[in-house]
Amino acid sequence: MSKHPTNKNLNIIKATTFENLPLIKPKGHGSFEFIKQYLVSNIHVIDNALRIHHRSLAIRVDLRFPDNYFDPDYPKMTKEIEITRFIKSFKSKVESLMSQRRRDGKRTHNTSVNYVWVYEYGEGGSYHYHLVLFLNHDTFRHPGTKTSPQQSSPLINMIVEAWESALSISFHKAWDLLTIPPNASYSLIATEWPEEDKIYCALFERLSYFAKLNTKVYGVNRNSYGCSRLPRNR
Question: Which end of the chain has less neighbouring CB within 10 Å, N or C?
Fold first, then answer.
């Protein structure tokens, strides 16, 4: 284990497993370098989501920016970073949907919103966010597919609307900037032995990409990694 070259509070490890859970591996042989603190936080977020909701839905999304967004003359809403605005907006839209369902007399399961995100610079020269959202599986059983605004699920449309709000752009532009990767959803059930749960392991392995040392952005007045607030006893 070694210290991060620019942030001495972070520790770097090179491994193929972490706490008996699998880590993503490069094509071929060897292993990636990971930021240990991010791996620990990933576990805590998953476990906290399952502590709140015994059955949880995790959904993986990518959020990109419009062309020229980082030009100095591009209009910005506030100094608050985009992912913070996105999370606030998404939580508000989820609560609004729950309230509407209750007013309609429908059986309604409330949900917390937990999350892990990473801010990266891609090979194509573009900044973007990778994000995993954790919700109550009894509230949202599946995100559905991103087909068209008219045919997609309320959950996908709320994610688009939250990015629309975060960037102060049109819905259709936000729609084009949202990607739902293949196999994006995970139906989790709380278990005493997560290292024996194939779905938990698969999600943690995918999330370990968020803790990979390479492609992170440092020194640009914003964090490269963030997650929902964890209980203080952690």
Answer: N
